[in-house]
Target: Acyl-CoA dehydrogenase
Amino acid sequence: MTMAAASLDTVRRLAENFAAEAGERDRAGAFPHGPIASLREAGLIGLTVPERLGGGGAGLARAAQVVGTLGAGDPAVALVLAMTLLQHGLIHRAGTPWPRALADTVGRDAVTKGALINALRVEPDLGTPARGGLPGTLARRDGDDWRVSGRKIYSTGAPGLAYGVVFVRTDEPEPRVGNLLVPMSSPGIRIEETWDHLGLRASGSHDVVFEDVRVPGDHAVDLRRPEEWRRPDPLQQAWSCTLLAALYDGVAQAAQAWFRDFLHERVPGSLGAPLASLPRFHEALGENERLLSVNARLVASLAAETDAGALPAPQEAGFVKLTVTENAIQAVQRVAEFCGNAALSRKAPLERHLRDVLCARIHWPQGDAVRVAAGRTALGV
Model:
């Protein structure tokens, strides 16, 4: 199947198929190997790879549409895909620090092999490097090559990754910090299955341990002085915030669809009519519609500006991510409030939507960071 053949109708059908087994994967914490294989068959792994490499050549708007649609079916699957689409949205851009030949190889592997890639950044002691500090993962020189040792946590998609973009510090007299592209089949890498969280349980976000892993010298794709990492990359921020916003909006869309069906189907004996006949439920459903309509406009606007080359400031992208995800959380919580025990039963998907949507607050940029940065900017401090 060509990239063009992976239409939105195809994506919707995939999402419906994924939704049918999402609850089972969630309970088992099982990585979605089957759905990922379906994404490969549909050509979606290479969606944002340039056309010159055989990819879909899609921009952020198309990527967000796909991620949001899949997020309504199984957000764990959508998150794994989103991380790959994000990386290809960055490494093939003009001005990328990546060697062109290496970026092209990774792109072709996505197209021909369905190779997944993700950035591995978070560590047990450091937390997210976006808040500052040097990574503990060390890259030391070994002739022309590097040897990498360390541990990364919350490594989404770990069981299925072909490549990791690993955030390291060097052992040089004046250490540099940055990314090494590490083939995940390299000797010395092991995955410890530590992921056992409240939500997105099937995302395979396990620990990855690197023990003296040899990495070719030209795979040091972006090493800089530590101070050069202090300012966020506007393009990276726009892609990341848009895709995360779309994903969690998809979860809220699924909850809203369940709510509509529930209101039509539930006929209390004391009422003798469906709950859909009561004004209080009209208002609740309508308020959710308002929030989701705002979400759609925010995501579409940020994606369109980014694709047009009119990059918003990182602060603006953070506002969109924060607003959309908080709207999504409010919408799902409202469904739970109005549906009571029926919403929290594990026989229904709503309790999973509630757990999954709360994960939005953990993804960078987190709410406090967005607000503090905006406040400091407004005060000029």
Notes: Strands lie at 116-120, 138-142, 145-155, 161-170, 177-183, 189-192, 206-215, 220-224. The chain has three domains: 8-114, 120-229, 234-379.
